[in-house]
Amino acid sequence: MSKNKVLNLKDKIDGNEMDLSLCNLTEVPVKELAAFPKVTVLDMSCNNITSLPLEFCSLSHLVKVDLSKNQMTVLPDDLGRLGNLQHLDLYNNKLTILPVSFSQLKNLKWLDLKDNPLEINLAKAAGDCLDEKQCKQCAARVLQHMRILQDEVDKERERRFLKDKELEKKKETKQREREAKEREARKRDKAEEKERKRKEYNAHMAALAVQEQKNKRKEEKKKRNGQIAADKKAAAESTPKARRRSLIGLLFKLLLLLLLGLAGVVGVCQLTGLKEEAVCAPINVAVDDGLSWVREQEVDVRVRDLVQEVDIRARELLQKLLEPLGVVPMATEPVETVEN
Question: Is residue 241 predicted with pLDDT exceeding 80?
Fold first, then answer.
């Protein structure tokens, strides 16, 4: 409201009472009313008010309110906040029900609900309200009725709360079960994935082992083939050498036998009674010439000693060989060494 209207409200105040009846009001000036906390009695009868704003419930200093002969169809849900209210006149409005919070008006002593299209149970509780006594009874009965409704509302609210809580609990249980299933599924998937990887690893390692075995067999086969080829090559290369060695050995043996035979002939002609025979004459001459040549040569003393030693050992060996045969060797002079 404007400043003039605020001043007009002051004009409507008489002590602790404010009279706003017959002011053609369609709305309740809550903000302006809140500026007068000492006003405890408010008369707004005979206006065109259709509803009370929620802010009206904050005027807890009000003790008596007259809203008769208006056009109200509903009261605010928080009407129970008017804890000091003792007298409430709602005569000749268009109310059908009261808010459940009405039961919280514990100090209410007087109530008039005549000429309202109240629902049946509320109308029965309200009664006629034809005099002071009936209005007081109306307040008591309506408060009791509203408390019953409040209890029912509270029970319904509790039932809904419990139901919602049960639904929430079931929802949480389902959520936990779903999460548990999901965890189990993830765990199973991980186990399957791990098993798959393990099988793949084992298969890979088995394949590597097989490949390694194949490579090893190939390497061994290659080595065997190489060894066989090397053996064949060595055999092919060694055959001529072996043949040559065999031929050389045979020739050496033949030469050794020839030398042994010649030495035997020389021994026989030198050491036996055949020395005087014509057959041994050329051999003896050759031996003597050879020994004479050696004596005439200027050779090292060690070489002459070696020749002399060989001559002595040869005579001794020949003697040992001929004794078992019954042949007596002839005495011969040892080879003389020539002194330098």
Answer: no
3-state class (DSSP) for residue 71: coil
The answer to whether residue 3 scores a pLDDT higher than 50 is no
Residue linked to tokens 């017959």 = 22
Question: What is the enclosing helix (H) or strand (E) of 18?
Answer: strand 17-19
Question: E strand or H helix at 322, and its extent?
Answer: helix 301-322
Q: Which long-range contacts (CB under 8 A, 24 or more apart) does 230-235 make?
A: none
Pick from 37-51, 128-142, 210-224: least confident: 210-224
CA dist 132 and 110 (Å) reads: 8
Sole residue written with tokens 């098993």: 195
What 8-state DSSP symbol labels residue 74?
B
Is the distance from CB of 84 to CB of 60 less than 8 angstroms?
Answer: yes
Class of residue 59 by CB neighbours under 10 A (exposed 0-12, middle 13-18, buried 19+): buried
First to last CA, the chain: 171
How high is the pLDDT of residue 327? 56
So what's the pLDDT on residue 7? 45
Phi, psi of 73, deg, nearest 5: -110, -15
SS3 call for 110: strand
Q: Which two tokens stand for residue 140?
A: 């008591």
Q: Tens of pLDDT along 260-314? A: 776 666 666 666 666 666 667 776 777 677 767 666 665 556 666 666 676 676 6
Write down the residue that tokens 């005027």 correspond to: 59
Contact 66, 44 (CB under 8 A): yes
User: 3-state secondary structure string, 147-209?
Assistant: HHHHHHHHHHHHHHHHHHHHHHHHHHHHHHHHHHHHHHHHHHHHHHHHHHHHHHHHHHHHHHH
Are 70 and 47 in contact, with CB atoms under 8 Å apart? yes
Burial 96-129 (b: 16+ CB within 10 A, else e): ebbbbbbbbbeebebbbbbebebeeebeebbbeb
